[in-house]
């Protein structure tokens, strides 16, 4: 079974109810992998295990999600996100959508924070966090900053300047314990700081006008032309698509046209919705949230920061 864009869930439920509503109330278990050997210093412990997901829907067999070592701790879906409960209880955030990628190798939850970022009148940003947990042994529970521009539904993967785009929560047996009050308030302080910085940065980007040459220079940095294209004075197809977004009044509001903010959003829009070799929405989400699409957005954001510094 594969999942697509996820399931919209009620805004007033906790982690356990949210997982059930999103059809993610299945468990993962481990068993010794074929050919695994007993660890000599730890009787009844093997050096390699398979992670398996319970059958879902019409499936009759468990699905193998990954291969892990002896120290791996299986973490069920409801447990993985229960650390976030203080945010829900205190009214700081609400669960929005939830789903899984592939066969369940990664489970994700979108949580919406209260309030909006108003870049300019008529151009608002909803504040979202993307929580994810892997069942293939690849990493910890993570929190990503994924504000969404309302006018065109761009997902603006974000990181503080000089900071990481991801907060990791340790993958341990005790993760299911809620954060204590001090830890929850510290996490909220970090989240608030990130979005306060984003508010300032987006406003500065919207205030910086770009001419045609400056737009081309930015695109050249991000999507360099081939030698043949430069000699023929020809623009790559991707440049043409991005400029088409800039000219579309439904996607680029007139009040921010010809600005760094408009160009950045056009780049993100193209990455989010461009045609690719991926099969299905699941693969697209994996790219734009966790793969090359995320990396491209962060690169574009860092270029934008450089542009602002040079213009100062």
How would you describe the overall organization of this protein?
The protein has 312 residues and is an alpha+beta fold. Among the domains are: 28-73, no CATH class; 201-311, no CATH class. The chain is 37% helix and 21% strand. The protein is built from 10 helices and 11 strands. It has helices at 15-21, 77-81, 85-89, 181-207, 212-222, 227-231, 237-247, 260-273, 280-290, 292-311, and strands at residues 7-8, 28-32, 49-53, 63-68, 93-101, 106-120, 123-134, 141-145, 148-149, 154-155, 166-169. The strands form 2 sheets. Strands 1, 5, 6, 7, 8, 9, 10 and 11 form an 8-stranded antiparallel beta sheet that branches. A 3-stranded antiparallel beta sheet has the order 2-3-4, with no helix packed on it. β9 and β10 (154-155) form a beta hairpin. α8 packs antiparallel against α10 (292-311) and α9 packs parallel to α10. The protein starts with 6 loop residues before the first strand and ends with a helix. 33% of the residues are buried. The model has no long low-confidence stretch (mean pLDDT 88).
Rg, rounded, reads: 22 Å
Determine the structural class based on helices, strands and strand pairing. Answer: alpha+beta
**Average pLDDT figure:** 88
In one word, what is the shape?
Answer: globular
- What's the number of extended β-strand segments? 11
State the low-pLDDT regions, or none. none
